[in-house]
Structures are given as C-alpha cells and as structure tokens.
Amino acid sequence: MSRFLLNKGALVTGGLTGVGLAIAEGLAEAGANVAVGSFVNPAMPDFVKNVRERLEPFGTKVFAGHLDVRNSGLVREFVSEAQVVCGPIDILVNAAGICFEQPVSGHSDELWDRILDTNLNGAFRAMRETMPGMISRRWGRIINIGSTYANVGWADNPAYCASKSGMLGLTRCAALEGAPHGVTCVMISPSGVDTEMTRRTIKEISEREGKGRTPEDVLYDIIMRKPQKRLLQPSELAALATFLCREEAGSITMENIQVTGGSLT
Fold it and tell me: Is residue 220 flagged as an active site residue?
C-alpha cells in the first residue's frame, strides 16, 4: 500500500479490538500517525500494550490509552494528548460502541442511557473536539461506524438501533457543515461482523432463548441465512475506511455506505 497518509494524524475511538483496531492498522499502514482510544477494563490491562505492538511495526507515531467517550472532559483531554504525539487530528474514526440485548418493554433507563451515550453522544463529542481543526486546515475525514440496523431494526436491541439511526443523522449534518471546507463525513454500515461484540451478543441470544441451543448453534443459523454464508471480516471495513481517506474520495460525503454481503441483517 502506498503511504498516502504520511504526516496525517488519525484518531480511532473504540480501537483496541475489532473493527476499530483493524481500521487503525489500515491507517498506520498508509502512513498515518494513529491515536487509539477505548474504554479499558482494569481486568484487561494488556490491551493498550497489544495495540502499540500491532501498530508500531508500521513505523508511524502511535498513541494509545483509556478513553471514555461518555465524558466530555476526558474526550477533550485525550484529543489534546494525542495531538502532542500524532500531530493535528486530520482523520477521525468513531468506532466506539456497545450493544446489549433488552426489549423495549421493561428496558432500563440505565442501560438505554449507557448505550446512547457511548454510541451516539460519544461520536458527537469526538467530532466536536476534532472537526474545528479540520475545518481550519481545510482538510479532514470523519468516518462513523454505523450498522445496517440503523435502517431495518433489530428485535430486542432498540437502544443500539436508535443510536445508529441517530448517528446517521449526525453524519449527514456534519457532512454538510464540513463540505465547504474540504471535510467529509461518511457512515459505514456493516451487517454482521466477526468481532468480540458480535460473539458476546450471540451468547446473550443463546442464553435468552433457553432452548438448549449453544452460541455455536445460533452463529451457524445466522451464517446460513446470509447469501455469502459468512460474517464480514474487520479487515474488509478497514480497507473501505482507508480508501475513504484518499484524495480521490474527497467527493464521497454524507453517504451511508452499507457493507452487507447481500444481507441487511
């Protein structure tokens, strides 16, 4: 891959695992200095070390650490510290997200607020901190990781679906705001991706059904319903996100790019 992002600074939220980490690798391979921030569970202290070990071989600057996107002050502090290492943030990837099974009926306020505050409000906070600099430099790329469920819905996951639908509206508004200044904003909406969050959700479905089906049984049924008979891989989304940072992609904005393998669910 050509190093077309040399001297660009990138921030990836939720980048310690899954789609976020894959995108961070793609950007680093293209030459960007990459800051990765994600909520670090104290029980898993090696996550930050693992991210550095994954990104440093690409030879660019790396900043990684704990980031709780639900806290405006922490987001502001993280962006400031990241820019000391990586330079001005030219690329923002909002990949931080959580998902928990719970139907509308009886849905707790605590869980609803937690999901919306992470998935939607967290993206807004990161955009609010980084977008002014992009506008002033007249170049920027904002990529929000959404979901096909923003459009089709998903039983027992109303907060997740609402957060991704809200992210689509936020994406379109940011795209219009950035358009006169060389700043694009796009949402990538995959269907099922092979990540730890997907595996955890499948385990929750298995436990909730109580029919004796194992998580492997549930996963098999999901895969068999898909035309390509597989889950998407994080590397596929990373390739698309990296392409969207090219100069040739400067007119691709305000879009909801669905990556589905032929299935919206």
Answer: no
Domain over 9-191+233-259 is classified CATH 3.40.50.720:
yes
CA angle 210, 260, 206 (to 5 degrees): 10
Its pTM surpasses 0.70: yes
Token pair, residue 259, equals: 């990556």
Q: Which residues does 241 contact at the CB level (< 8 Å), separation at least 6? A: 23, 26, 27, 93, 143, 188
Q: What angle, 0 to 180 degrees and rounded to 10, lies between the N-to-C axes of helices 109-116 and 158-178?
A: 30
Q: Active site residue: 58, 139, 149, 160, which one?
A: 160
List beta partners, residue 143: 93, 186
- CA 33 to CA 92: how far, in whole Å? 12
- Local structure of 63: helix, strand or coil: strand
Q: In what order do the strands lie in the sheet with 62-66?
A: 62-66, 33-38, 9-13, 89-94, 140-145, 183-190, 256-259
Q: What single letter denotes the amino acid at residue 261?
A: G
Q: Is 90 helix (H, G, I), strand (E, B) or coil?
A: strand
- 185 touches 146 (CB < 8 A): no
Nearest-angstrom CA–CA distance, 114 and 212: 30
Residue 222 belongs to what H/E stretch? Answer: helix 215-224
**8 Å CB contact between 145 and 93:** yes
Domain residue limits, the chain: 9-191+233-259
What is the per-residue pLDDT across 201-245, written as a single tens digit (0 to 9) for each? 898 888 888 778 999 999 999 999 999 999 999 999 999 999 999
